[in-house]
Design brief:
Elements (H helix, E strand, L loop, with lengths): L2 H59 L18 H26 L10 H26 L13 H23 L12 H24 L1
Helix pairs in contact: 1-2, 3-4, 3-5, 4-5
Amino acid sequence: MTADDWAGYTDAAQQMSAIRGEEQARAGQLAAGTRDGKVHVDRLTRRLAAQRQHLTQLAVTLRLPAPQFGGIVRSGVPDPGEALRLAATAADAADTAARTAERRATRPPLLPDLTPLARNSLVYAAAAVLGTVASIAIFAISPGTRYGRIPLQLVPWSLCGLPALAFFAGYLTVSLLGQPRIGGGGTPSVRLGGAICFVGMPILWFIFIAATRG
């Protein structure tokens, strides 16, 4: 073997050794990436399982249909790392949507910015005003009114019947629309409603009678 042959052999051996080192380094990187990817997949799997359980329980609490979870489909993203990032982003978005729904469920649909006392007062007052308007309308179209007499047959309705209807209308309104789906604070106030309807309406009625006959 000549010196040139030996030099060529040595160069080839060095190149082969360098290539083998690069391949070993690349294999190590792939193995490390695979291990990291498996860790991220396991972590994401546990998170999705907990998220599914939370969303199912939240639907029960909010009295909504059970959520539908799709099966496993191909994402079309060739890079596993990018696919994991997209999956984590989607999971974050689902958590944000769940928190938003839960926060909204703590507020009643009717007048959500008011306190329970203000909401109850406004609803019962509106019912009382409508009841008073109905009482005045019935009084105005009564035949006896034309002759300057108070229709006595309307007195029980004006003092008891219509206030009772207004009270139950306000009670049902607050019960159905004034209560949050999560938490409390929207229970109708029976005493407040009774005071507004059974005391306020007769007072307004008597004021109307006094005004029309004075």
